[in-house]
Design brief:
Elements lengths: L15 E5 L2 E11 L3 H18 L9 E5 L5 E9 L10 E6 L2 E9 L5 H14 L3 E2 L3 E5 L13 E9 L1
Antiparallel strand pairs: 1-6, 2-4, 2-5, 3-4, 3-8, 6-9, 7-9, 8-9
Length: 164
């Protein structure tokens, strides 16, 4: 007897369209092999913390990862925070921005391992709405991960701009 495939989207929030304002960011940029992604994030957050503290920059958002283009063996990304002003380039930290305009959004609940499925769900939703996804997209890490937390408690906001 075959068991039914579980519906991993049951009870999950629905995607939505939102209008976003552009935002100034402090970021570390890199083209990173997928296998080095975690180390890149860890190193970037250390540099960001030191730089924003030294420059007395106010963070206005949780951390995010902005992905440029489609990830493959490597990923072109920016890791950072929305800020109240421009950071002076220092120790690999530079000024960046998040785009304004229409974007599709979805909150992913759970482990980072499931992010690929949530991105696919958001892409499919955009297509079903007759909209075209932009080249870049980002994840906002609403809950800060810690070694002792239950991964089921993680929340990640996915934002995918709509191409004109």
């Amino acid at each position: 007897m075959n068991s039914p495939t579980p519906d991993t989207t049951a009870g999950a929030p629905e995607p939505e369209l939102v209008d976003l304002r552009p935002a100034t960011t402090a970021v570390v940029r890199g083209v990173v092999p997928m296998s080095d992604l975690r180390d890149f994030f860890d190193t970037s957050f250390g540099a960001l913390a030191r730089t924003v503290q030294a420059q007395r920059i106010t963070l206005l958002s949780p951390a995010f990862g902005l992905y440029r283009g489609t990830p493959g063996a490597t990923v072109d990304l920016e890791v950072g925070f929305v800020t109240d002003g421009e950071v002076r380039p220092e120790a690999g930290v530079v000024v960046g921005s998040l785009p304004g305009g229409r974007a599709a959004r979805l909150t992913h609940a759970g482990s980072f391992d499931g992010l690929g499925a949530s991105w696919e769900r958001l892409r499919s939703w955009l297509q079903a709405q007759g909209l075209r996804a932009g080249e870049d997209r980002w994840e906002t890490y609403v809950t800060q991960p810690s070694p002792d937390m239950d991964p089921a408690d993680l929340r990640t906001l996915l934002s995918w701009p709509v191409a004109d």
